[in-house]
Amino acid sequence: MTLIFQNIRKQYGSNVAIDDVSTEFVPGLIHGIIGPNGAGKSTLINMTAGSYTVSSGAIVLDGRQMQSLKKYEIANSGIARTYQNIRLFDQMTALENLEVCYYPTEVGATWREVLWPPFSRSQRERRREACMEILRFFNLQGYATAEAGSLPYGRQRMLEIARALVMNPRVLLLDEPAAGLNHHETAELTAKLAELRSPARIMIIVEHDMDLVMTLCDRIVVMHHGKLLFQGTPAEVQANPDVQLAYLGTANDIDEIRAAAQDRRAKLGIRARQRS
Amino acid sequence: MSAADTPAAAAPRTRRIIPFLVFALAIALLVATPFLPNYHIRVINGLLIYILLGIGLNIVIGYAGLLDLGFVAFYAVGAYTYALLASPQFDLHLPFLLILLIAAFLGMLTGILLGIPVLKLRGDYLAIVTLGFGEIIRIMMNNVDWLTGGPQGIARLDKASVFGIEFARPVEIYFLLLVIVFTVAVLVWRMEQSILGKAWAAIREDQDAARGIGINTTNAKLAAFATSASIGSIAGVIFAASQRFVSPESFTLQESVLIVLMIVIGGIGNILGIVAGAAILILLPEVLREFAEWRILFLGLLMIVLIIIRPAGIVPRSFGPDKLIRGLFGK
């Protein structure tokens, strides 16, 4: 099982967002996609999940072309995603957010569920238990009956990943999972994601947090201006001069930026970030 | 510490008493209805029909989050189905239950026919198209004289009878309605709790994310339209059977708006809310009959006040039938 991008391209009018990207993602590994803002990272995720159409080229999962399928069909063939801006079902409880993912497999039994109470009871019991287990994995069991929209931001991020996991996906796409999280939450997220690595699952993470990417990812794809700039292991990516120039900056640059930021903070009277 | 505890402890108790009182009042009214004068029974029958319509429309508006302003079309489909199949118009006299099934099916079909072209629309656009659809059906009923009798409508409809028991007098219609409303309410509530109901909620919350978890939103929405329309159609059959006369006048845009108002005032997405909303909008004008010319002004004021003090409706979505049952029978 592999996920293959074959010369994929995304064009809005004359504006080329993704230009002839070909690469391959394999199960058991965590793949990272990095690059500056506007490089096309999220576009790749959106095309893979069917949120955007593909202008040309093919996305192939397990020998099957995905790019012409509808979004729900893509989801049902085992590609689950999270969103850059959290998109939960806000007024449903955390538990319901997960339970509803059973729709594709259980909608056929709706009439039985409506008309035959013993069946619906066992059906719901089983569904709830499976979802609670995933909530427990993310330490969200305490929020099971809380409305998803009322959860703290960091918990919402976790819940969104939990929702993607309920679908038991073969491909898990995470679009900036650490965005907006504090240090503590990012560490927790990193640990959880590491546990999700499975020989039956392809994981792809788009992320700006380089600590998380370098810690977690086995392979990294670097995007720049819609083109694939480089791909390799974290060490190779960090050592590559093109990547440094385009995105990471040289060691000196990074030190300079850090120093400048500290300077600015000091001038503004902002104390160093405190986390307890 | 103890001073802070008292109001916190008192709040749940009042919260439990108020629904109990309202519930007791409703039961008392239902028990007393058969002993009231015919006129009053007719009013209650009207109320029950509107509750049925509200339950139907709420599936589309409250559960799936699609604003449908042409619901009265399905009501008309049901009413005319009965009128055409149980009257001297074509000298057809099919049994009531059979017509009920036919009407439910035709309603479902009409619902899907309306649903297909509007699937891609949401919000205002959907509202306008469905509003147009409602008018199209009414105008058609008004003009296809050979079929519907035009503006004169169809009169002398058969009395409804089920297994030889006749349902013609208001009190008989009342019992028929009571059974149908209760059955439909229970089924629809169970539907809301089912996986399909959860999918409707997901579509309401975020359609695109719903597709992202594998929900075929086209099918789920069509299921909502179809179920909702067939309930509207069933309500139409009973309406026609109780009036024993139908004409296009009964199916104006105002009716659609009234049903939407019931849902919004009562509590969108909640069957209990619909009962409350219908009770207020149908019974209050009757109680305030002497001030009939003030009715619209009063309705406007009521809406303003409710929007300010209870924006989620009289009975909000969070207080569903399950909460009521748990509140009444403990646990």
Please write out the topology.
The complex is a heterodimer of chains A (276) and B (331).
Chain A: E1 3-12, E2 15-25, E3 30-34, H1 41-48, E4 56-61, E5 64-65, H2 71-76, E6 79-81, H3 94-99, H4 103-106, H5 110-115, H6 117-137, H7 153-166, E7 171-175, H8 183-196, E8 202-206, H9 210-216, E9 219-224, E10 227-232, H10 234-239, H11 241-248, H12 251-268
Parallel strand pairs in A: 3-8, 3-9, 6-7, 7-8
Antiparallel strand pairs in A: 1-2, 1-4, 4-5, 9-10
Chain B: H1 2-32, H2 38-63, H3 72-85, E1 86-87, E2 92-93, H4 96-118, H5 123-143, H6 145-148, E3 154-155, E4 160-162, E5 165-167, H7 170-193, H8 195-205, H9 207-212, H10 217-243, E6 245-246, H11 253-266, H12 271-287, H13 295-309, H14 321-328
Antiparallel strand pairs in B: 1-2, 3-6, 4-5
GO molecular function, one term (chain A): ATP binding
Protein name (chain A): ABC transporter ATP-binding protein
InterPro entries (chain A): AAA+_ATPase, ABC_AA/LPS_Transport, ABC_transporter-like_ATP-bd, BCA_ABC_TP_C, P-loop_NTPase
Global structural class of chain B: mainly alpha
Whole-angstrom Rg of chain B? 21 Å
The total count of helices of chain A amounts to: 12
Q: What value does the Rg of chain A take, in angstroms? A: 21 Å
CATH architecture of the largest domain in chain A: 3-Layer(aba) Sandwich
Mean pLDDT of chain A: 90
Separation of the first and last Cα atoms of chain B: 27 Å
**Annotated CATH topology of the largest domain in chain A:** Rossmann fold
The level of helicity of chain B is over 70%
Name the overall outline of chain B. globular
The main sheet of chain B comes to: 2 strands, antiparallel
What proportion of the residues of chain B form beta strands (DSSP E)? Answer: under 5%
What's the number of extended β-strand segments of chain B?
A: 6
The largest sheet of chain A is: 6 strands, mixed
Shape of chain A: globular
* Percentage of β-strand residues of chain A: 15-25%
What structural category arises from helix and sheet content of chain A?
alpha/beta
Order of helices and strands of chain A: EEEHEEHEHHHHHEHEHEEHHH
